[in-house]
Amino acid sequence: MTTTDDLAADLALALELADAADAVSIDRFRALDLQVSTKPDRTPVTDADRAVERVIRDGLGDARPRDSILGEEFGTADGSDEDSRRQWIIDPIDGTANFLRGVPIWGTLIALAVEGRPVVGVVSAPALGQRWWAARDQGAYTSQHGQAARRLAVSGVTELADASLSYNSLPGWDDAGRLDQIVALTRAVWRARAIGDMWSYMLVAEGAIDIAGEFDLQPYDMAALQPIVEEAGGRFTSVDGDDGPWHGSALATNGALHDEVLQSLRSR
Questions:
Q1: By CB distance 3.0 to 4.6 Å, which of 25, 112, 191, 219 could disulfide with 164?
Q2: DSSP state letter for 30
Q3: Distance (Å, rounded) from C-alpha 87 to C-alpha 70?
Q4: In this structure, are 215 and 121 located in the same domain?
Q5: Are 142 and 168 found together in one domain?
Q6: pTM
Q7: Which residues form the domain of 83?
Q8: Residue 166 has pLDDT above 90, yes or no
Q9: 3-class secondary structure, 56
């Protein structure tokens, strides 16, 4: 059984690993000798992505050798406990396309899932000077530019007509056969923008926007986001309402709007 004290220690470790990751990634951001290649799925990867993941994996290997690891660049690694219920899930640089173009909207995502449910999440965006974190039943927090942490809370918006939406990318909704639904939702809300990547979900947790969602995602894109949104009082599911980061899409809301948004986005 994982206790509150256990999660506090796991969160402290994740924050330490994020410090190490930030030191690597920010050093390579806008570097003139950045090495960029294309993975088999046609997405870009840089030397920074691989270096950040190695640093995190090395730290986990030392501190949590019994736990398994799932990372974007190096796949799955079993810990010394083959039956471990604990898995660390890593996206070394979420927003690689932004990173390689010099756009500061990117970050390192570190999560711990216990029996398939993310219970610790850290999102660190050094180019933005901000970090967000949470552990189950311990609240969600953020800090900007080294200032004191403040607790996160989602918005109190209850009407779609008053809500702000981030939909990330229209082609993703089109590929999923939900273009008509997302366009209709953009017309129903007060304001719609394509903020993209991890930042839109963190803005939901901050209460700055009310709805964020997208398709074509992997577990490492989402696992760290879920605890932060939920501990801030929101809801995090797939676009079809499935729990957890395992279903290829994400929908985060302030909670009050979640069921109505799910209904609006339902496949017809």
A1: 191
A2: T
A3: 7
A4: no
A5: no
A6: 0.95
A7: 4-151
A8: yes
A9: helix
